[in-house]
Write the C-alpha cells for this entry.
Amino acid sequence: MIEERTTYSDQPHTTTVVERRSGGGGTILIGVVLLIAVIIGAFFLMNQNRNETIQTKAISGAAESVSEGAQKVGDAAQKAVE
C-alpha cells in the first residue's frame, strides 16, 4: 500500500542549498604513498652502505694478503743473500 502525502503552504517558495565538502581521502593517499617511498629509499641507502662496507673489508683482506706475500718474498730474498 502506497501512502501519499501532500503538503500545502501559504509561505513564499524558498530554496535551501546544502553544500557539502569533504576531503575525499586523496590527501591521506598521497601521504601514505610518500611514506612508503621514504621507507623504500631508506632501505636502499642502508643496503648500499652495507655493500660498501663489505667491499671495503674485501679490499682490506686482499691488501693484507698481498702484504703478507711480499713479506715472505722479502724474507726469502734475505735468506738467499745470507
